[in-house]
Design goal:
By secondary structure, the protein is α+β, with helices and mostly antiparallel strands. The chain folds into three domains: about 120 residues, Band 7 domain (Tetrahydropterin Synthase, Chain A), CATH 3.30.479; about 100 residues; about 35 residues, no CATH class. About 70% of the residues lie in helices and about 15% in strands. It has seven helices and three strands, in the order E-E-H-H-H-H-E-H-H-H. The longest helix is centred in the middle third of the chain and has 99 residues.
Length: about 260
Amino acid sequence: MSLCQRTIIKSTNTVFVFSTVTRDGIQNIFNNIQVISDVDADKLVPLVRKFGLEFREALIFDRIYEELRTFCANHTVDEVYNTMFLDIVGIVKKEVEHSITRLGDNGIKLFNLVIPKPTIPADISRNYKQVKVQWTEQLVATQQQKTEKIKKETQSIKAVLDAEREKKVLEIDIQKEILRKEGEKRLSTLENDILKEREQNQADVDKYKKTQDAEANSALYTPDFIKLEMAKALSQNTKFFFSGESSPLGAILSKIMGQV
């Protein structure tokens, strides 16, 4: 018979109670373990002849219990109930399939295995619940701390940005003030230069005028001109009395007139 013509007998079974003990001596009770398996119809008769009608009990259920018991015996209750619980199904299923394969080609296939969380002693269960509550509270507290940290970091970043912005604004204001002062300084320097140039020009004008006046006076006040002007002045003054050349005035007149 070809592979596509083979008849498959599929079965879903529930194993109700398994009791195991962990490495630290804690009893665990597994309830309602479900197994989905099938058997090739061509292999069914040899299986029944060799293992009886309850061949699934011997080849599947007992193997599941043995592998589950071995796993629990090698791990603590915390590992079985908490940290490694999700690994149990994969480990047990793999070992059961390996055990079935060692028996040869018997036509048994293990499709799925469901192992619920075990029942543990009430006091330990309460402790786990308390731990769960504490863990939840710690998670909330941690999240609040993260939120507060993010809030503070955000405030810090905002403060830094504000400070940088104020610094830039201050730098701009300082640059404006510097430019204003430099402009005032340049304007003052320019005004001083203009005033200085104006005063210098006035001084040059005054100097030129004085020079011209001096030159004019030098050309005008000749000895003859001076004698003439003095004679005019003396002739109009009737109060002068001459007492000869021996008098001071007569001496001056004689000297002046003698030079003409």
